[in-house]
Amino acid sequence: MNCLKFKSQIWLRQKPAEVFPFFGEPQNLAVLTPEWLHLKMLTPSPAVMGAGAMLDYRMRLFGIPFRWRAEITEWNPPNRFVDKQRRGPYRMWLHEHRFEDWDGGTLVKDVVIYSVWGGRLTDRFFVRQNLKKIFAFREQKLREHFGGALTMPKRLPEL
After folding, report:
1. What DSSP string describes the chain?
2. Are 134 and 29 in contact (CB under 8 A)?
3. Is residue 159 part of a domain?
4. Separation CA 2–CA 89 (nearest Å)
5. How far is CA 126 from CA 68, 130, 144, in A?
6. Torsion of CA 121, 127, 131, 133, to 10 degrees
7. Residue 106 falls inside a structural domain
8. Is the dihedral of CA 18, 70, 112, 147 positive or negative?
9. Which end of the chain, C or N, has fewer beta carbons within 10 A?
């Protein structure tokens, strides 16, 4: 299996203990997901988060409806959690969410390791472009929710 990597980061003014709970609420995924994906949470609310929790969603990707099941494989509030696709459109999907205390706020880092059917060609022409759009939308929504980055650090660390 040919694994690919996608990375993203955003700095927020709030401390990790203030940012992490927003990500720890599965219903907030709908807030961070573009409408064109038609995300619907199927797991009843409130979901109990922690290692071993299973979350079920329904969405559309390239107009094709599918279900996504993610397992929370690691849970370490307020610093980190990892979700792994157990069922969904990717051959493999592992998403690490990190919340680092940095320059008076939180550096939210995402590292996604994934594999797609059709390999690098499919990734290049379809998947990577959509991941960029999804994470750009997510960044916009995080800035709206947490009040923007009015005092953004001059330089963010390398991912």
Report:
1. ---EEEEEEEEESS-HHHHHHHHT-GGGHHHHS-GGG--EE-SPSSPPPSTT-EEEEEEEETTEEEEEEEEEEEEETTTEEEEEEEESSSSEEEEEEEEEEETTEEEEEEEEEEE-TTHHHHIIIIIHHHHHHHHHHHHHHHHHHHT--TT--S-PPP-
2. no
3. no
4. 15
5. 18, 7, 28
6. 100
7. yes
8. negative
9. N
The residue among 98, 104, 53, 107 whose CA lies nearest residue 79 is: 98
Domain residue limits at 126: 4-146
> Contact at 8 Å (CB) between 13 and 151?
yes
Q: Which residues pair with 44 in a beta bridge?
A: none
- pLDDT tens for residues 44-76? 988 889 999 999 999 998 788 999 999 999 999
Number of domains in the chain: 1
- CB-based contacts of 44: which residues, under 8 Å, 6+ apart? none
Q: Is the distance from CB of 128 to CB of 7 less than 8 angstroms?
A: no
The span from the CA of 126 to the CA of 132, in Å, is 11
Residue 94 within a domain: yes
Q: Which of 10, 32, 13, 37 is nearest to 22 (CA)?
A: 32
Band (pLDDT 50/70/90 cuts) for residue 143 is: very high
